[in-house]
Amino acid sequence: MAHRVSAHPPSAATLRRLERASGAIATRAVARMDDDLPWFRMLPADQRSWVGLVAQAGIASLVEWCRHPGRPPRLTGEVFGAAPRELVRVMPLKHTVDLVKLTAEVMDDHVESVAEPGDVDALRVAVLQYSREVAFATAHVYASFAENRGAWDARLEALVVDALVRGERSEELPGRAAALGWADTSPVTVLVGAAPDVGDAHAAVRRAARSQSCEVMVGVHADQLVVVLGGAEDVGAAADRVAEEFGPGPVVLGPVVDRLSAAGGSAAAALAGWRAARAWPGAPRPVRADALLPERALDGDPLARAALTERVVRPLRGAGGGVLETVRAVLAGGGNLEASARALFVHPNTVRYRLRRATELTGQVATDPRGAWTLQVALVLADLDGGRSLWH
Length: 392
Hints:
Elements: H1 12-36, H2 38-41, H3 45-67, H4 75-78, H5 84-90, H6 93-109, H7 111-114, H8 120-166, H9 173-179, E1 188-194, H10 201-211, E2 215-221, E3 224-230, H11 235-243, E4 251-253, H12 263-276, E5 287-288, H13 293-298, H14 302-319, H15 323-332, H16 337-344, H17 348-362, H18 369-384
Parallel strand pairs: 4-5
Antiparallel strand pairs: 1-3, 1-4, 2-3
Helix pairs in contact: 1-3, 1-6, 3-8, 6-8, 8-9, 8-12, 14-17, 14-18, 15-16, 15-17, 16-17
């Protein structure tokens, strides 16, 4: 509820003198801020100028209010219209309240030099009442901005996540990411799984991400929950914690990339992995998308098929020394090294040496069920692709 000016408002002559002095008073207020507020001195010049504009607009609005004491002051438009969004972005509410308080003190210091004889008390009361109104308006501006900014950020976040899911190479993505504070966030990865049936998935995921000191964006697409994580010191630990907030079923972790603009590839891998994950019932949760390369390739993912060729087939082909032949023999023999050695007419230790070499080249262990499966699928798909046979 707006306060009214005292029964005897300042005279017209006093208000004219206050108007003429408004620029000098605002300048003095900014100088006092510079002297008394260490954090204010750290602001860039353009942000300090916004403060000066608001201070001068506040004095002008005080004059108008005193001229029309029955009219509620339009503080949000008249005072903060100079730079409301910029002020809210660069300083917390407490700092802005400090600025309002200090400006009111400077205005009070100038009352006697500005007021006509007999108007000192009236002007001082007006300054006090008006400074209270400005303090209330400040809180309103911040609350309104937070509400509007929250709704805007939610829409912007949805657009960014949707673009990643669709694999769009939008020229607007970097700008949207920067508006969300993701300009320099690294590393970045994408998690995909089922959306929970109950509860607020967005809020739960945000809490989980904050507990790991992560930036996060969340999107729900049909029954899929898509989460973009950024800035995690330990990506694995962060993914484990956030995965707890997904619905039942597999949760797939896309490859880690160094910036949000490259996260489309992480999202594509995670989505492909989620579609194929049902073929590996025993997969960990979350499971890395790269660990699902065989299932993804069999499900028709060309990126997974190309990755198997690049990471498994080509290294084995180029290894020489009977490495590829030995891997095939071990796979055909069900992992029995002695039987494989007999089939190859070599010592079992030779087989072991060649398998160690294969593991160094591909990261896959031929005697491990999961590694054997990955090697088998990679080699079979390479053979089906035709061209030069990998048997020789």
